Every structure is written in C-alpha cells, then in structure tokens.
Amino acid sequence: MESERPNVCPLHGGGVAAQSLVGRLLAEVVGSRHVYGGGDPAEPLDVWLIDDRDATVHVTTGSDGCLIVEESQPHTGYDMGDAGRVTVGAISNETPFADHVGESVLAVREEHEPNTGRVALELSFPKGRVRCESWAGDLRLTLV
C-alpha cells in the first residue's frame, strides 16, 4: 500500500511535523548506545531531544532506512546477552548537539526519498546546524 503523501514513510508514518520543532529550546539530549564487551559505546542508535518544557522528540532510523522523528519518551536500557547491551542516558556533551544545549531551534529542513519518506532532518541553531540522517540503516549526527 502506497502512502497518500509522498514525504511520509509507508511503514512508520509521518511522525512529528518538523516545523513544530522551531522555537523549542534544547535543554538535554538523551541517547541509546550499543555496548559490546568492554569496548567503548558505539554511536547513538537513538537520540531524544528534550526541550525546556520537558517535551521529548525521538530521532532514530526505521527498518526501511527512513528517519523517524516522533514524540516519545526514552526507553530503558536492556541486556542482549552475548551480543552486548544497550545503554540509555544523557549524552548532551557527546553529540553534535553539545554546543546547542540552551539554544532554540531557529529553522528546520528535511530531505525525503519517494519510497522511504524522511531521510534527513537539519536543525538550525544560533551557533550552527546539526544534521540527523539515516545512513546505511544507522543514525548519523553531524555538524553542518
């Protein structure tokens, strides 16, 4: 079944309207990471952007390569036995969002693909921009 709106992921829906992020003041960033053995945690699997009013926007990738942007609270970490564990906690200082905690979102820009929906979201802050994208099935966060 095809989506009636070309910018909507057929599997995960449209999620949060990106324009609703404009004006929100970023207060904290929480993330989930895969930790295997004694190694360092991998890049975030998910991030939750928490604003100054405790509203939370979850950013992650979908199984079809879309970028999911939805309102939901962080989940708890979990153990995956021999495959490691997923930890969840504050990571504000460990992401490209570090310099933007305490700043308001000034503008947003999205990129879409016809069969997948949203694949990238760029957030503009007073001191720069952060790009969130689905890259080969992984969440990639970069300074722009």
Summarize the structure.
Helix content is 0%, strand content 45%.
Walkthrough of the structure:
- With 144 residues, the protein is mainly beta.
- The chain has one domain.
- It is built from no helices and 10 strands.
- Strands 4-3-2-1-6-5 form a 6-stranded antiparallel β-sheet, with no helix packed on it.
- Strand 8 and strand 9 form a beta hairpin.
- The radius of gyration is 15 Å and the shape is globular.
How many distinct helices?
A: 0
- Shape designation: globular
Low-confidence residue ranges: none
Query: In terms of quaternary structure, what is this?
Result: single chain
Order of helices and strands: EEEEEEEEEE
Rounded to an integer, what's the Rg over CA atoms?
A: 15 Å
Helicity range of the residues? under 10%
Overall average pLDDT: 91
Relevant terms:
144 residues, mainly beta, 6-stranded antiparallel β-sheet, 4-stranded antiparallel β-sheet
Ordered list of secondary-structure elements with their pairings:
Elements: E1 26-35, E2 46-51, E3 56-61, E4 67-71, E5 78-79, E6 85-90, E7 107-113, E8 117-125, E9 128-135, E10 138-143
Antiparallel strand pairs: 1-2, 1-6, 2-3, 3-4, 5-6, 7-8, 8-9, 9-10
